[in-house]
Amino acid sequence: MSAVAIEGVWKFFGDYPALRDINFTVDGGACLALLGRNGAGKTTLLRILAGLSKAARGSVTILGKDARAEVTRQKIGVLGHGIGVYEELSAYENLRLFARLYGIGDPNKTAREWLERTGLDRVRDGLVREFSRGMRQRLAVARAFLHNPSLLLLDEPFTALDDRAIKVLQDLLKSALQQGRTVIMSTHQLREALELATDVALINRGKLAFRGERTREMAEDPGWLYRHYGEA
Amino acid sequence: MNFFRQAWAVAAKDLRSEVRSKETVNASLSFALVILLLFSFAFDPGSDQVREIAGGLLWLVFAFAGTLILNRSFARELVNDCLDALIASPASGAQIFFGKCVANYVLLVIVECICLPIFAVFYNVRWPRQLALLFLVMLLGTWGITVIGTLFSAMTVNLRLRELMLPTLIYPMLIPALMGAIQLSSVLIAGEPLGAENQIWFRLLVAFDVIFTILALALVETVLVG
After folding, report:
1. What is the DSSP string of chain B?
2. Helices B199-225 and B162-189, interaxial angle, to 10°?
3. Hey, which end of chain A has fewer CB within 10 Å, N or C?
4. Chain A residue with minimal CA distance to B12?
């Protein structure tokens, strides 16, 4: 069974079709790099997969269930453009809140563990509004990973990260892939993404232009895919 | 139980954020006090006319001040895209909504509890015997304002003119609840006993709260996700 199955998905913003008849599957344990120019529809597709938006037509199945089912959301970790943590709460309170929302047995212990893993344990009681950008990003990564999701949806995860946060995220992603979790990430940072990716999908103006395994050519020359399948 | 546990997590988060920032309670309370003061200039506090319209004045203050709290309810989730993180979590739209309702309700009741004695001073009201009933009416009416306001706060959260749209949308919806609350409050403030003729307003308030709570819980998933 595929971890993710997308069948005939269309999405409109007004009359404009942001996604046009997208069809593909992602196997369990794969890391799919979702590529495309700005406005191609990557974020729109990821939002549909995350259950944040509904497709106008078509269907999305995640781990055999509807994307919006509670049991599905329990197994998805989402890291979007925004960091998704509260400014007026401390790092510890933020992680404890999300651990509770994800129904984790011991939210306090889980929050402490993830603060340690992301190097934020020294500032656990500091309010997020006082954090640097890098610290916020690491907290966002902890929030997305803390319930050990089977599927990770990452929207441009390496954008604006400092080197420490990139290292934390890369280590977590490698570890997640070793454990057989599935990762879908949209990105413009082709080198970082293609280093991890096992599969590639290229979206061009809302249409799927390419879907296949990542090849050595792509990893060695990140512009190759755009030259062969991207818009002129 | 799981429903209430996750809803409470959302409510506790909102209340904790508010305790730290105090942004909505301070604004709402200041606004309420200014309106109370301005109304006291407009009417002679000792006159019979004021006694007749006291309930209306009180609920206008509550409704106006409440809008400031309700407006921020979902708007505060826009910072850092927290609303997406909440919706992507296993908490259902109904749990998020109910949690937010509880937090808004607590904040509104706090503002009202501070306004009530000030209102009594400004308008020469004596209500020791009727205070418990008035408090009950206040709780029922406030829940109606909270449920409608929180639902519309979710609906308008992505609009640029949400501060303007929210009151425009909720006040017409609140007419039945406000009518009931105003009628009952006027009688209680005047020190008159609640007769059988006023029971219908109580029933209206309770029915409004129950119906709109159920409707909002059923609709909010569509409002949040589409």
Report:
1. -HHHHHHHHHHHHHHHHHHHH-HHHHHHHHHHHHHHHHHHHHS-TTSHHHHHHHHHHHHHHHHHHHHHHHHHHHHTTTGGGHHHHHHHSSS-HHHHHHHHHHHHHHHHHHHHHHHHHHHHHHTT---TTTHHHHHHHHHHHHHHHHHHHHHHHHHHTT-TTHHHHHHHHHHHHHHHHHHHHHHHHHHHHTT----GGGHHHHHHHHHHHHHHHHHHHHHHHHHHH-
2. 160
3. C
4. A97
Residues B176-198 have pLDDT tens digits of: 999 999 999 999 988 888 888 88
Q: Where are the alpha helices (DSSP H) in A179-223?
A: 190-196, 216-220
| Cross-chain Cβ contact B9/A88 below 8 Å | no
* Alpha carbons A27 and A33: distance in angstroms, whole number: 13
In this predicted structure, the answer to whether residue B47 has a pLDDT above a threshold of 90 is no
A1-75+149-162+169-232: CATH topology is Rossmann fold (3.40.50)
Closest CB to A81 among B2, B81, B92: B81
A154 bridge partner residues: A79, A185
How do the domains of chain B map onto residue ranges? 2-225
Task: Give the nearest partner residue to A103 out of B86, B88, B90, using CB atoms.
Answer: B90
Q: B49 pLDDT band (50/70/90 cuts)?
A: confident
- DSSP for A158-170, written as a single string: TTT--HHHHHHHH
Is the distance from CB of A188 to CB of A36 less than 8 angstroms?
no
Residue B108 has φ and ψ, to the nearest 5°, of: -65, -45
- Grouping H, G, I as helix, E, B as strand and the rest as coil, residue A133 is helix
Over the Cα atoms of chain B, what is R_g? 18
Q: What are the sequence ranges of the domains in chain A?
A: 1-75+149-162+169-232, 83-148
Closest chain B residue to A53, measured at CA = B225
Could you tell me the pTM of the whole model?
0.91
